[in-house]
Amino acid sequence: MDIVKATKQYEAWVAAQARLIPGDIERKHQAMAGSVFPFFRATFYRWAQVWPDVAGDAAKAPLVLGVGDLHVENFGLWRDAEGRLVWGINDFDEAYKIPYTADLVRLVASAMLAAEADGLKLEDSFIAGAVLAGYQKAISGAALPVVLADRHQWLRELAVPKLKEPSPFWTKLTGFPKAAGEGLDEATPLLQASLPSGHGDTAYVARVAGLGSLGRERIVALTDFLGGLVAREAKVLVPSGWGWAAGETVGGPLLYPKILAQAVRCPDPFVTLKGKWLLRRLAPDGSRLELTDMPNQRSNEKLLGAMGFETANIHYGDKTARAAIVADLAARPKHWLSGAARAMRDQMVKDFHDWSTASR
Question: How far is Cα 260 from Cα 310, in angstroms, rounded to an integer?
Answer without folding.
Answer: 13
